[in-house]
Amino acid sequence: MSSSPAPSSRPPMVDDPHFPADPYPTYAWLREHSPAHRIPLSRGGHGWLLTRYADVVRALSDERLSKNSDLIGHGVPDPYAQSRLSANLLSLDPPDHTRLRRLVSRAFTPRRMERVRLRVTAIARELIAALPTGTPTDLISGYALPLPFRVICELLGVDGLIEREAFHGCVLRVFAPPAGTPAEHLTGHVADLERYFTDLVAAKRRRPGEDLLSSLIDAHSAQDGSLTEDELLSMTLLMLVAGYANTVNLIGNGIHILLNSPGQAHKARADGTLLPKAVEEVLRYESPIERVPTLVAREHVSYGGVRIDAGEVIYACVAGANRDPDRFTDPDRFDPHRPDIGHHLGFGQGIHYCLGAALARIEGEVALSELLNAFDDIVQAVPEDALNWRSTFLFRSLAELPVTLTRFPPR
Ligand code: HEM
Fold first, then answer.
1. Which among 33, 92, 222, 341 could bridge 97 via Cys, Cβ 3.0 to 4.6 Å?
2. How far is CA 176 from the centre of its chain?
3. Residue 318 CA to ligand 1 centre (angstroms)
4. pLDDT tens digit string along 308-328?
5. 248 alpha carbon – ligand 1 mean position (Å)
6. Residue 2 has pLDDT above 60, yes or no
7. Could you say which of 3.40.190.170, 1.10.3720.10, 1.20.1560.10, 1.10.630.10 is the CATH number of the domain covering 24-407?
8. pTM of the prediction?
9. Following DSSP, what letter does each residue of 139-188 receive, concatenated?
10. φ and ψ of 402, to 5 deg
11. Is there a contact between 260 and 293 (Cβ–Cβ < 8 Å)?
12. Whether the CB of 248 sits within 6 Å of ligand 1
């Protein structure tokens, strides 16, 4: 198997300002020299970063690891983890996780999601019609963000109740704060978000419908213990935020890769059957989630030759695992034709495997196909080193993607 050579000297680590622009040499170095790597945590203390495919797969299915951040044995508690907003699937272990996942999974069956495809296509076309041509325009704010945002708002039944830019700003302040944000500011941002969701759920209670949020509200009102008030609030947050925040990055990263991989945009335009494979390859090559949210050891475990004690934090780095040469041949090459396409960990693994994977795949395919087929030429309007990759180490995300578009001439 061919291997991607790790740099011989130590590249920038995850807290270095140069890291977000190109984290892959760092992951290559870590896989080879420090597969369970000690990193500082913003809450104080340290955690362990796993970057090898085999370790990440094992960690995501390891019952000795928990999602419950109350088990973390050191440092200052994170304001989000302490708030009512965190009582959702991503912070829970069975049996609570099993109960809540059952409540919402019916809404996301692949068959049901296929019916959403028409709506995704209509929204994509509407957004494309509004994009200016011949002058630089930002595809993140004009296309990659509003498309999944509108889709998930319609599914939840909250379209018209949320002002997108203000809400997205709130989400970024909590889940992607700039490095060094003081704890008291974070506490304030979490409180803002909590107020936002309390008001949203109250507004929906006044105007129920045939949508996902109304069915969650019904489950809460049934008072049979199937959904507590905090869980209702927190599940609403998870559905809304998970429902768009990663898909923006799938679409944005996907367009960026197609524009920068010679011939790929042309091939995808000429052969529509290539797009589902291209979407899978984007999920591997430029994973929208860089590492999954915190796991905590319930007892002492061993990873990458390191003893990790009970109460210590583990970060399973999906982006590192997806470029592991022990799993993928020539991993630093974008190749939609690879034989093991789809074997990436972009949607996670195990009991927390992404509930919205079918929807995200549809949105990715439609978004890329509609864009490529609407424009004769799409050219990135700034050089690579002028792009702003957000330094969150949770999401792999471009803040903007300026392009110049040329529409096909009318026939
Ligand atoms: C490209 C887009 C997406 C990516 C890359 C993605 C990725 C992921 C990953 C890696 C996880 C596992 C997290 C963990 O193990 O802690 C996850 C969980 C989840 N995702 Fe997605 N996701 C995407 C889109 C969506 C969409 C559209 C929804 C729709 C609501 C969604 C809803 C969820 C939910 C509810 C969970 C929690 C599942 C659980 O804990 O049981 N995601 N996602």
1. 92
2. 12
3. 13
4. 999 999 999 999 999 999 999
5. 13
6. no
7. 1.10.630.10
8. 0.94
9. HIIIIITHHHHHHHHHHHT-TTS--HHHHHHHHHHHHSPPTT--HHHHHH
10. -75, 130
11. no
12. no
